Amino acid sequence: MKKIVLILCVLLSALAAESQTAIGKWRDHLSYTSVRHVQLADDGRVYASSAMGMFYFDRDDYTINRMNKTTGMSDVGVATFAYDRQSKTLVVAYSNSNIDLVKDDKVYNISDIKRSDNLGDKTVNAVRFHNRKAYLACGFGIVVVDLNRHEIKETYYIGTGGTYTAVYDVAFLGDSIYAATAEGLKRAPVANNYLTISDLWVSVTDTALAVRTVTILDTMGGNLVAATYSYDPGQLTLYHKTAAGFTSWTQGEIVAMRRCKAGMLVSSRDRVDLYDSEFQHVDSLKTFVYGNLEVQDADCDAAGYYWIGHPWAGLLHCTPEYDENHMPSGPVSDDKVYRLMPYNNSMMLCPGGKTTTYEKLYNTANVLTCRGDSWEQLDRSNHLIDTASDVLDVVVNPFDSTEMIAALWGDGILQIIDGRPNFIYNDSTTGGVLQSMSSGGYKLVFTGAVAFDIHGNLWVTNSNQSHALAVRRSDGSWRKFSTSALASALDVDKIIWDSLTDYKWFAGRNNAIYVHDGESKIAYVNPNNGSKLRTESVNCMAQDQNGDIWIGTNKGIKVIYDGYKAFNNGGTGEQSPVTCSNITITNGEFYEYLMAYENITTIAVDGANRKWVGTASGGLYLLSANGMEQLEHFTVANSPLFSDKIIAVAVQPRSGEVFVGTDRGLLSYRGTATYGDNEPQEKVYAYPNPVRPGYDGPIAVKGLPRGAVVHITDVAGRTVFSGKANGGQVVWNGRTLDGKPVASGVYYVFASSLSGSSKSVAKILVIR
């Protein structure tokens, strides 16, 4: 019986994970569970790609190595890739038509196709090689890349009259180059120096292929091999060319074929088949340890063992004795990031969603949790949430860390105990407190946001209802609150509990913010009250450490400084006197409102009370605590950020790691600020520690009291650094006060709170 070996890049603790990501560095949290493309290289590597990222498994040292923007690649979203054994170059084509050449682990970017505005369909369908050149089969023609010079050599437009035509694949046989195009199979003399002339490309009129579209080409044993769709788009037929013409030799739900050292490997949806050079069937693989096989791509090594791209098990290595499973750790999907919620040493991801008109998207109900470098998802074995979808928000009970509560858009509130769905609160299970609406014969409970207060009460928004706010008291009882004084029904999907006033602030589709005292008072805040810049939407809210409420709008940021006045007009549903102030900043000789030209999508507050601000198209900003200073601006162009469209941002409180959800996947950045306590943590530690030879980066000291004054001295007591903690962390550059690198030795960290009442000591070993 076979056994499976599951191989993941999992670190054993959050501390170990922190030591792997230095201050100011990025790491990816892409999904690698669904491997779409696979290819073996001659250097012992097996390359594999998922929807957004790539990795390779090194057969020599048994390591898994990520390949994306955080590791030096130029983009994310892999369309296809191929490895040229002659030049030992990996060519990666991205979904946006950007191209990377990887040779000796150096990356050479070719962005010409991506940057061009007049090529029509720029999709790269396949990559083939000939004489140290890569031939890219594109949606408009063929692009030839010189792999030695790392540049585009020429482009062939081979449609009738030199027009654009889609090219699906390319192959070389004898003295000819073949192209599978939307106009049929074409051929040209490969040695001709004028292949940019479309008339040199002649149609192959073999009757077996005349009425079919060729999608895949290859060669084996001196024969051209073609895969074509017949009348059923789910079926491909494989032909090989003989002296008598093209002859079919197999058909089925074929997804890929590859010439390997053992012959021609044909990948179908549920199997892989190996054929010899005479096109005789020699082997099949239909099952693996978990059951029937599912295949997206495959390759075969010299020993005849299969490497398979699987839709949920990553990269499979199937041998007669066992099946190995290789993939980096990560969430189960890339593109489903709706909201991020930190808790202690973990980060929770909500993969739900809704349309702009507040309809369901039907994303599978789940909560994904990152701890250190490992990712977990809900235990679905009890099938409680098999028909549920769209988790928009999640919180952890502050009095019972085993309980998580998730808001299901359309399905009510999900209680999770120890990672397993336990109970669903809806209209029937709360005695009508949570209210439903009928749609297509179904009762839908649109709960979009949840928050716990300091008393352990769970606050819930309930959209499209006259009672849009509800609470589960700490004793388990439920109560709903009428919001009809504001409107007959509200679309709401955001809520925060005000830690200073105990008020509940919530908002949604309407351009208004609602506030409730938790008993009988309710009012609404006009986001344009007190603002000189009129805005049309409230996209997000966050409360900072001063108690101020920061509001992200379609035209920048506004701040509520006077939330305590919420009910000064009575609290019976009227407009509150609370103002939403613009922050005025200087730009040279001119004054302007903070981020007035950006559509703000998300705001998070870090341990130093700084604001991390995500935008719809302008990337990620870091602002000072008062918003007056821009400290960082990360974009696709100047950082590993996957996309300038930011959907969610959250700061992991203990590590200071900033998680950034984009429309192209999740990644994180090691910030310089952590949340600090009034007293030092039980263990104050520095990392990296020891500081090894050659390291010249930042050294972080963590676990300090909030805002601690820090001095670092050598063994003789001479001060080499003095500073103040950002939250509970301080960063030292490893240099003396006059800027020189410190010598080898032990350095002592002395830290005290602002009152001077608490002190803590740590040691840092520096090895030069």
Describe the structure concisely for a colleague:
The protein is an all-beta fold and 768 residues long. The chain is built from two helices and 70 strands.
Averaged pLDDT: 91
DSSP strand content: over 45%
Which ranges are low-confidence, i.e. pLDDT below 50, for 5 or more consecutive residues?
6-19
Number of domains: 4
**What is the number of helical segments per DSSP (H or I, 4+ residues)?**
2
> End-to-end distance, in Å?
53 Å
Multimer state = single chain
Shape: globular
CATH architecture of the largest domain: 7 Propeller
Over the alpha carbons, how many angstroms does the gyration radius reach?
A: 30 Å
What's the CATH class of the largest domain, please?
Mainly Beta
Largest sheet: 9 strands, antiparallel
Instruction: Find the count of extended strands (DSSP E, 2+ residues).
Output: 70
Q: What is the name of the CATH topology of the largest domain?
A: Methylamine Dehydrogenase, Chain H
From the helix content, strand content and strand pairing, which structural class follows? mainly beta
At the fourth level of CATH, the homologous superfamily of the largest domain is: YVTN repeat-like/Quinoprotein amine dehydrogenase
